[in-house]
Amino acid sequence: MGLEFDSFTLAASTTDLSEEPAAREFADAIEFRMDLASEPVAALEAYDERVASTPDAMPILATNRAAWEGGEATDDGRLETLAAATRFDAVEAIDIELESLRAGATAATDAREAARERDVSVVVSAHDFEATPRAVEMRETLTEACEYGDVGKLAVTATDREDALAVLTVTHQLTAAGHDVATMSMGEAGSHTRAVAPVYGSRIGYAPVVPERATAPGQYDLETLAELVERLQADGPSTA
Ligand SMILES: O=C1C[C@@](O)(C(=O)O)C[C@@H](O)[C@@H]1O
């Protein structure tokens, strides 16, 4: 099985796989933003070759984010390219937008099937770059995402502490109900959720290897997030 997300996984987000050695000290995986890279498939091919001689190189979570979901990929061949990524040994998880699966797009279902056949995990994600939806909606979105994939992911935008708290509450509720979720509030008001949500069960955190190249608003740099998450997990009471 690929990345299992059975405990917290810190993903170093990058468009450049040559950054992997610099991230290894702090991260568990690389989130490769294929949509922001110039030759993503060639880069994966080169990475796979490198991994053969570097056994401790980190596994990849491949994302080919659609323009309509905050990324830069057009829908022309986007999911086909994502499916193609699953044939590389280093790719142990892919991220598919919930909206694509919901719409019943054949390419989305095919990408999910390709992942299943190759023991690659599937993160099903939803984003809101403007606001934090009502808690009931966030619960529904995450529950549905979990039905489609191994992890349901929700990134929303906080404008105040109340928004951030709502995301943490939903994270706790879904985790307590036995779901594997990954959550974060984007934006400055939500930054701290990136460190705190793992305490409530969030399975994936994202941070850029190079701080100037954040892939979402409000991200901490990788070293900072690694340290915050570790401190909170080590210092806190048991998660029960
Ligand atoms: O979906 C996510 C989460 C994210 O948007 C964040 O807020 O950290 C960063 C993206 O790179 C990733 O694909």
TrEMBL record:
It catalyses: 3-dehydroquinate = 3-dehydroshikimate + H2O. GO terms for biological process: 3,4-dihydroxybenzoate biosynthetic process; amino acid biosynthetic process; aromatic amino acid family biosynthetic process; chorismate biosynthetic process. Signal peptide: none annotated. GO terms for molecular function: 3-dehydroquinate dehydratase activity. 3-dehydroquinate binds at residues 13, 31-33, 65, 194, 215, 219. The active site is at 127 (proton donor/acceptor), 153 (schiff-base intermediate with substrate). Pathway: Metabolic intermediate biosynthesis; chorismate biosynthesis; chorismate from D-erythrose 4-phosphate and phosphoenolpyruvate: step 3/7. Involved in the third step of the chorismate pathway, which leads to the biosynthesis of aromatic amino acids. Catalyzes the cis-dehydration of 3-dehydroquinate (DHQ) and introduces the first double bond of the aromatic ring to yield 3-dehydroshikimate. This is 3-dehydroquinate dehydratase. The gene is aroD.
